[in-house]
Amino acid sequence: EVVMTQSPATLSVSPGERATLSCRASQIILSNLAWYQQKPGQAPRLLIFGASNVAPGVPARFSGSGSGTDFTLTISSLQSEDFAVYYCQQYSHWPRTFGPGTKVDFK
Amino acid sequence: EVQLVESGGGLVKPGGSLKLSCAVSGFTLRTYTMNWVRQAPGKGLEWVASISPRSDYIYYADSVRGRFTISRDNAKNSLYLQMNSLRADDTAVYYCARELSVFGVLSGLEYWGQGVLVTVSS
């Protein structure tokens, strides 16, 4: 199966700062990658699909990039509501696999 | 408005069975691939199973293959997960999720239910 890794495990950021989260796949997945945001007690929310396409309703400060095995989620100017855990998921191969997550917390 | 509502969770003994349901509304179920994803307490997300619109393609995670069965009834707007031979490590919140389809290409999990807790313990 495709193993997804994410770094860092925790990212401490101040509001207004830029946040850069990384995701790596153990094999090539083209652009078949999604990013999700999850807040405590809530279901995950799709942010990015196709590695760089912003899902409907997602603020423009969220962007994704990468292809092949290395991917990045960028939050250009962190807002208070962005403190959450972020997961990447590959859907290129079965079984689908998620990364372990990056927690973005308050610096 | 798209809604997915899971039910059927609860406490079950190791080796027991449970059937989860996901009732959907606000969209036509028969046109979408559907998934189950779970999350153990304090842990990350784990994809469990996927079923195509007409049930002709079904996939499972290795951890549940042979024990869990995903199914759907498009006429009843419902998705199911039959879970047998349950183990302690199946304890998790189980989410049903609708797949995003972009020009026929599956592209991630666009809509999620609120989740239902399954606890496997003696």
Q: Key terms for this structure?
A:
heterodimer, A: mainly beta, B: 122 residues, mainly beta, 4-stranded antiparallel beta sheet, globular
Describe this structure in words.
The complex is a heterodimer of chains A (107) and B (122). With 107 residues, chain A is mostly beta strands. Helix content of chain A is 0%, strand content 50%. Chain A has strands spanning 4-7, 10-13, 19-25, 33-38, 45-49, 53-54, 62-67, 70-75, 84-90, 97-98, 102-106. In chain A, strands 2, 4, 5, 6, 9, 10 and 11 form a 7-stranded mixed beta sheet that branches. A 4-stranded antiparallel beta sheet of chain A has the order 1-3-8-7, with no helix packed on it. Chain A is globular. The termini of chain A are far apart. The mean pLDDT of chain A is 97. Chain B is globular and about 45 Å long. In chain B, strand 5 (45-51) and strand 6 form a beta hairpin. By secondary structure, chain B is an all-beta fold.
